[in-house]
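Quick one, tokens below. Sequence please?
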């Protein structure tokens, strides 16, 4: 019986799991995350998943049975908070950048993000107004410090603020970068998982990729450049539309959410050869 069990094919998802976890494992090793911390995160994720899949509240015993977690773990994990200061500041910064880059009252005559003072002036609303209009539940000074620390905004000696990029791309290694990593990958993985679990005939999320091999480094670079430019243009277009629609909907008490992302993964010959 044991021999039959050992030769039985593994479920497809179990087979795919190692490949799915490899990029995450590299990030874990680089950031010093050990198997103990990873196990704790997995326990929390399993509990969240089983709670989300249940139409009614689960007792600690029932949650323990469905996940294999100890009842004490279930009770402890249910008392923890998901929200972290880094995650919150990352989301706030991204929203502020979006409004600054797309809202007409924060653009100059050429359509670029205009320079701002903290308070409103003869040119229009200031940075504090921007945070309020973006509906950020954080102090403007806290949001500004995050943007200044990440070199996304610069401030001159007179206090004038300039937006340096249209995207929240935090500097390497920081807590904000990890929060952005989480937000981007979790959204994509959620969309793909919903497709995987969707019943026959159910609506599926758009999730497509173009893959080519046997390319020269020059071809890889050309594809990367074109993809970067077109993806950025599309994201900026959707960003502007989403902001306009949010402004239209803001007094309706709505709670709908939307996420769209794009990724480009160039792999030159020399990188491929080193990994083989």
């Amino acid at each position: 019986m044991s021999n039959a069990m050992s030769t039985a094919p593994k479920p497809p998802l179990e087979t795919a799991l190692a490949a799915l976890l490899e990029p995450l494992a590299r990030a874990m090793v680089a950031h010093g995350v050990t198997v103990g911390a990873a196990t704790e995160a997995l326990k929390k994720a399993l509990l969240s998943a089983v709670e989300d899949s249940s139409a009614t509240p689960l007792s600690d015993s029932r949650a323990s049975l469905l996940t294999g977690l100890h009842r004490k773990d279930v009770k402890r994990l249910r008392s923890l908070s998901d929200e972290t200061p880094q995650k919150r500041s990352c989301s706030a910064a991204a929203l502020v950048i979006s409004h600054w880059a797309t809202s007409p009252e924060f653009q100059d005559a050429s359509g670029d993000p205009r320079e701002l003072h903290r308070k409103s002036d003869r040119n229009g609303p200031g940075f504090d107004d921007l945070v309020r209009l973006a509906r950020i539940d954080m102090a403007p000074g806290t949001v500004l410090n995050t943007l200044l620390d990440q070199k996304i905004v610069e401030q001159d000696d007179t206090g004038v603020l300039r937006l340096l990029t249209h995207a929240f791309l935090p500097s390497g290694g920081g807590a904000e970068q990890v929060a952005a990593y989480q937000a981007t990958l979790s959204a994509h993985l959620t969309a793909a998982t919903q497709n995987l679990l969707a019943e026959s005939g159910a609506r599926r999320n758009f999730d497509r990729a173009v893959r080519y091999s046997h390319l020269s480094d020059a071809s890889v670079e050309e594809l990367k450049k074109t993809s970067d430019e077109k993806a950025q243009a599309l994201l900026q277009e959707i960003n502007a539309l989403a902001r306009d629609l949010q402004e239209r909907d803001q007094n309706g008490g709505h709670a709908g959410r939307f996420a769209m992302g794009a990724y480009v993964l160039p792999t030159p010959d020399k990188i491929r050869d080193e990994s083989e």
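Residues 97 and 167 are 7 Å apart (CA to CA). Strands lie at 153-155, 161-163.
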